[in-house]
Amino acid sequence: MQFISLQDYQIVKNYTFDVIPTSKTVINTINAHSWVTAEKDPTFKNALLVSDILLPDGIAIVLASKFLTGDKIHKTAGADLHEMILRTLNNKAGKCFYLGASKETLDKIKNKLHKEYPNIQVKTYSPPYKDTFSEQDNKLMIESINAFEPDVLFVGMTAPKQEKWIIENKSEIKASVITGIGAVFDFYAGVKKRPAKWMINCGLEWFGRLIQDPKRLWKRYLINNQIFIYQIIKIKLNNIFH
Fold this sequence. Notes:
By secondary structure, the chain is α/β, with parallel strands linked by helices. Helix content is 52%, strand content 16%. It has eleven helices and eight strands. The two termini are 30 Å apart.
């Protein structure tokens, strides 16, 4: 597996998931929004830094890599990672657990999964909607996961909440892979639509998502993307003059 060094982060250049790892592996993704958020949130930044695998989820990270290092990396969105994992689990008759989202969304995921990947065993858990989980909340979630002992735990609580939760609880979780994939729960369930393939291929997935959900995502894409560009240019200039 090849990595590129982008400021503090070690990011995988071109990732393929085709084998269930034998040791516990945390997979997270990084995009312009999470980069900017992490600069103001040390706990979140640490969660990204200590990931076993950190994937470039967004055209901004791909372009920043080319601009700063000259290295080309392959974008791997959460939805792409999810699909790779499901294909591998289906081939291996594996088990996965979905933690996050509403019961209705999770039921849709299960129904779709049974049709598309019949060899996978699946369990789900819908945690309470709150900013901070209590000790009892965490206990119930972890007990439910560990009773099933999945090969893969998908966590969908949106960033940075999911990454922080993973790092705080991973030592107690019995799963080979733990990964935060946020909006993928909604995409796979069909609750929200992932932007068209042509937009994804042209590096415009962010724009498609903004059009679909401007009220929630305008700050992420219109403000944080500009901050990210400023920070990357600053890094480039520092590299040139120091």
